[in-house]
């Protein structure tokens, strides 16, 4: 006991020093008031004399912010972001080009040309609406289903393809699974697919940006499934207590592989968690590209101006299978998927909007479909023709100087290939 007391004595002042500054500045009068008020550090509250548990649904039924209805009509003119025609066309071109790239690469995996793929079907609005609301210097941390963000930033088709093929043009030198894109020039941090890896990293980056006083924000994308990881919770809390300019962008697409949201959590989705951490939060219609744009733009403006985190929960639907390793017909109905594909799709909603405006018609659609398919096919064929990266890249870049045991492995491979090289497609590798 004495040892414990001694330990507490030693530790307490250090712990207090680490607490929020506000605690230290409370005046003496607050403690000498005759009124009985809770003085506990860490809570702002009143006393009550009735026993009542807080209902978890106190924060429930968080509304879904939208700007457009399913027919592409603006619901409230004051919410119309009034994006110029040229930029709206860029939204549409990006969303549809992404969709076409997905179709070709998905098929390519099915034919055994690449090892794996993940489509973005149905989530195009969350990517493009949020990407358009950021500036190019804002730092992006993605999960793996955000290719549209990178595409909106101008990442070319041949580099998407190079990564999926792991060919010599791939900046990752063919060392990663497909869809693990990264681009330093475009401030897009390379994907790490162990779930939630990027969330604490994004907060750390936002803290660094805050210390530099840079006019930048960090945006961190993740799925509602990844939000169940411990790292997500640690990241939320750090971002709030360290007051970091970060936007947590949750794509709530209804599933984490085969786990539906009804089995993922018991509260009101992800937005409901924000207030618990002291984070400003909003739920938006992720299939409404303008709603996503408005929410991200305002979150960005305030995150930078006020140095604080924001949480956006974009409600959407994963129309494709989780990945090429999944068959979603085992756990959801075709009718369910068809509803989102045919009746509430972000691409058709934006197309309706453009048609009302007189900015798009069936002929333009036909011409663009043909052209975008041609662009994707050309990049695809080029990627397939390219050689694989040099074999020596198997051993480089981990250590500044190659250690002995890696050197030994490299020599063993060279020896092996000298004898058995004819059994390998060595010509398909760069020399
Ligand atoms: C730590 C960890 N556990 C499990 C997995 C396997 N896994 C890959 S994706 C995924 C589901 C993630 O769902 P969600 O975050 O909702 O993203 P979505 O795929 O729906 O976009 C799981 C369980 C993983 N990659 N990492
Ligand atoms: Mg999900």
From TrEMBL:
Quote the catalytic activity from the record.
Answer: N(6)-[(R)-lipoyl]-L-lysyl-[protein] + 3-methyl-2-oxobutanoate + H(+) = N(6)-[(R)-S(8)-2-methylpropanoyldihydrolipoyl]-L-lysyl-[protein] + CO2
Q: What are the required cofactors?
A: thiamine diphosphate
Q: Which domain of life is it from?
A: Eukaryota
| UniProt enzyme class | oxidoreductase
EC number(s) on file: 1.2.4.4
Record-linked InterPro entries: Alpha-ketoacid_DH_E1_comp (IPR050771), DH_E1 (IPR001017), THDP-binding (IPR029061)
Residues of the signal sequence? none
Keyword Protease set for record: no
Residue ranges constituting the Dehydrogenase E1 component domain according to the UniProt record: 93-391
Q: Which UniProt keywords apply?
A: Oxidoreductase, Thiamine pyrophosphate, Transit peptide
Record note on quaternary structure: Heterotetramer of 2 alpha/BCKDHA and 2 beta chains/BCKDHB that forms the branched-chain alpha-keto acid decarboxylase (E1) component of the BCKD complex. The branched-chain alpha-ketoacid dehydrogenase is a large complex composed of three major building blocks E1, E2 and E3. It is organized around E2, a 24-meric cubic core composed of DBT, to which are associated 6 to 12 copies of E1, and approximately 6 copies of the dehydrogenase E3, a DLD dimer. Interacts with PPM1K.
Q: Family, per the entry?
A: Belongs to the BCKDHA family.
Primary role: The branched-chain alpha-keto dehydrogenase complex catalyzes the overall conversion of alpha-keto acids to acyl-CoA and CO(2). It contains multiple copies of three enzymatic components: branched-chain alpha-keto acid decarboxylase (E1), lipoamide acyltransferase (E2) and lipoamide dehydrogenase (E3).
**Name of the protein this chain belongs to:** 2-oxoisovalerate dehydrogenase subunit alpha
- Provenance organism: Staurois parvus
Q: What lineage, starting at the top, does this entry show?
A: Eukaryota, Metazoa, Chordata, Craniata, Vertebrata
């Amino acid at each position: 006991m004495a040892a414990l007391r001694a330990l507490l004595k030693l530790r307490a002042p250090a712990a207090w020093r680490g607490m929020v500054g506000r605690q230290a500045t409370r005046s003496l009068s607050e403690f000498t008031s005759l009124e009985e008020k809770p003085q506990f550090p860490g809570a702002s509250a009143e006393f009550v004399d009735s026993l009542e548990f807080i209902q978890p649904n106190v924060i429930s039924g968080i509304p879904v912010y939208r700007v457009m209805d399913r027919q592409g009509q603006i619901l409230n003119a004051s919410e119309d972001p009034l994006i110029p025609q040229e930029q709206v066309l860029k939204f549409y071109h990006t969303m549809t080009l992404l969709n076409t790239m997905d179709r070709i690469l998905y098929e390519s995996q099915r034919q055994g040309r690449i090892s794996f793929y993940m489509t973005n079907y149905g989530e195009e609005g969350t990517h493009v609406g949020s990407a358009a609301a950021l500036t190019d210097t804002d730092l992006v941390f993605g999960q793996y289903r955000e290719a549209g963000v990178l595409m909106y930033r101008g990442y070319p088709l041949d580099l998407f393809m190079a990564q999926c093929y792991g060919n010599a043009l791939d900046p990752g030198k063919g060392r990663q699974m497909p869809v693990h894109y990264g681009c330093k020039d475009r401030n897009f941090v390379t994907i790490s697919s162990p779930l939630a890896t990027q969330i604490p990293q994004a907060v750390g980056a936002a803290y660094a940006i805050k210390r530099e006083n840079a006019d930048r924000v960090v945006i961190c994308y993740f799925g509602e499934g990844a939000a169940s990881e411990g790292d997500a919770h640690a990241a939320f809390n750090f971002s709030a207590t360290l007051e970091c300019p970060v936007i947590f962008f949750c794509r709530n697409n209804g599933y984490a592989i085969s786990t539906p949201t009804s089995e993922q959590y018991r509260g009101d989705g992800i937005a409901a968690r924000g207030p618990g951490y002291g984070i400003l939060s909003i739920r938006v219609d992720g299939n409404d590209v303008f709603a996503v744009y408005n929410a991200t733009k305002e979150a960005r403006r305030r995150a930078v101006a006020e140095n604080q985190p924001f949480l956006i929960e974009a409600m959407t639907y994963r129309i494709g299978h989780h990945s090429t390793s999944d068959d979603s017909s085992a756990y959801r109905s075709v009718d369910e998927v068809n509803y989102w594909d045919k009746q509430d799709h972000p691409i058709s909603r934006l197309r309706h909007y453009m048609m009302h405006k007189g900015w798009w018609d069936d002929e333009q659609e036909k011409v663009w479909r043909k052209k975008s398919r041609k662009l994707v096919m050309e990049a695809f064929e080029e990627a397939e023709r390219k050689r694989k990266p040099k074999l020596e890249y198997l051993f480089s870049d981990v250590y500044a100087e190659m250690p002995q045991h890696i050197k030994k492995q490299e020599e063993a491979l060279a020896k092996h290939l000298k004898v058995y090289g004819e059994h390998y497609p060595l010509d398909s590798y760069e020399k």
